[in-house]
Amino acid sequence: MKFLIALILFFFSTALAQIKSKVFVVSWQDEVSQLMVDHLSRAISIASKEGASLLVIELNTPGGLESSTREVVKQIQNSPVPIAVFVYPPGGRAASAGAIITVCADIAAMAPNTNIGAATPVGMGGEEIEKTAKEKLIQDMLAMVRGITSQKGRNSQLSEEMITKGTSLTSEEALKERVIDLIASNTQELISKLDGTKVKKPSGEITLNLKNPTIIPIKKSLSEELLSTLANPMVAYLLLVIGFYGILFELYNPGSFIPGTIGTISLLIGLYGLGIIGVNWLGLLLFFVGLGLIALELFTPTYGILAFFGAISLAIGSALLISPNSPYGNIPIGIILAVLVSTLLFVYFAGKLGLRAQSRQKMLGAEDLINQVAIAQEDFSGPRGKVFVRGELWDAKLTVESNVSKGQELLVVGIDGMTLLVKPK
Prior knowledge:
By secondary structure, the chain is an alpha/beta fold. It is built from 14 helices and 16 strands. Helix 12 (about 280-300) runs parallel beside helix 14 (about 335-360). The chain is elongated.
């Protein structure tokens, strides 16, 4: 009997050893924003439903929004699945908001040749925050970091100095100073090193069983990829410009609907992209004032005066639209110049065509065709045939007996109903 029980236990333990744990992996290589909050929320939900043993966030970020940082930290702290933040790949960084997220993770890890720190808060556009507001924000962040790092047994003092002094550390320095828990060359090595690690969660202490792991990546959904593309200053800026052109074409040629529809959609999507990035409202106002002045030049020609001031406003507004120090980057000066030049050229040629149209003789009716030159569009069959005059095709009838060949010039001498009376010029 004892032998039988021992045999059953042996087979049972062997079967358990063959059960593979599930490790889900999220790779975030962008700014910390609402997009990251939403993506991580979806990843935690999937990992929880699938009974994952661990969720790894491969993080490489220059920083981002303070509000989004706090939301990410909150998600990590309340996740039923243990979460390891892994600063990866080599050469990557967890700067600013990324540093706070890393030190507040259940497990903080870094790859060799990565760095962490420089978490002093700045405005969304990279500008300095007003002194009192900045001090309040720093104290708020310090309290959060101090509480979590103390609980995790990490170096609270150095973690706080990342915020107060902008301190940055290499992966080796961070490990030596107990800012992080371990260094791993890649995600597979990280998972291997974490097997058997104890993690404290709100539900209690969890021992990670990561033997025979099945690693499952969670990629961005189609909508998340689209929103990530829109969170690009150049894309958002070009969408605004396309929106302006589309609406302008609709106003210039009312009734076509397609340019106006495309323009409206592009404008709305561009504004949404700027909302993700963070917009300088003065820059946006100057941008639209510039476009408005340029549009007015087309409808109320002022010999270039409105276009000149519109171009200045457009250039300044484009430059101020997003700060060059923003974690999202800035609009390349080449793109701004290209938009400015193409807009002015459009105004010049459209204005020229408008003036030419105004100088044309007014069309008062069919009688106005008398004494105009018509071109025969075919060899006349007897006295009748087709002619082309003033951009229109007409039936014509000869008033004198003559042979008319295709392409011959005729003179309109009268009108009989819807038929022009013509004779050879």
